Amino acid sequence: ACSIVVKFLNQVVDRIKDGVDGGNLSSVLNELGDRLYNTILTHTRFFSYNTTGAMLLLCDINEYKKCVNGWGVKETFKKFDALHALANLLVVVPDNLPKACSSQLLASVDKQLVNSFVQLRHDYKSAKLYQTNY
């Protein structure tokens, strides 16, 4: 699904660039990026992840990051960097989770969102991750 979405987005952005320029182009691409980010974030939170699933998610997010980076909208790219850092919390060894949760990429992310991503781990209960507030 990711490759189809990226292909579609590239086509849409090409059409947008044909019809919009200047500050309006930045605004439209920023809005598109915000909506894409929110859609992916919402969809991601519907599932729990084992290591394999989390690695696939990270690969997909990398593809979205590459796509969004080509738009030249820094605010949107920063959001996808943070989304990648959030998804990385799903693969980090439990002992390294506190350090990963306090990474610079997550500094501006709401701590409740960080905690909600930790709860998506398949080992959340078995590794007793619920005993720590990240």
UniProtKB/TrEMBL annotation:
Exocyst complex component Sec10-like alpha-helical bundle domain: residues covered: 1-129
Descriptive protein name: Exocyst complex component 5
Native organism: Ditylenchus dipsaci
GO biological process, one term: Golgi to plasma membrane transport
InterPro entries hit by this protein: Sec10-like, Sec10_HB
Cellular component terms per the entry's GO annotation: exocyst
